[in-house]
Amino acid sequence: LLARASRALRSLGTQAWTSASAGQVHAGLDREGRASPYLSVLLACAPGRRVQLRGTRLAGGALLGSARVWVDEFEIGAFELGGPLEFGVSWDLPPGVRERPHVSVRVQSDDWTYAEDLRHTVAFRLDQVSIER
Question: Has this prediction a pTM greater than 0.85?
Answer without folding.
Answer: yes
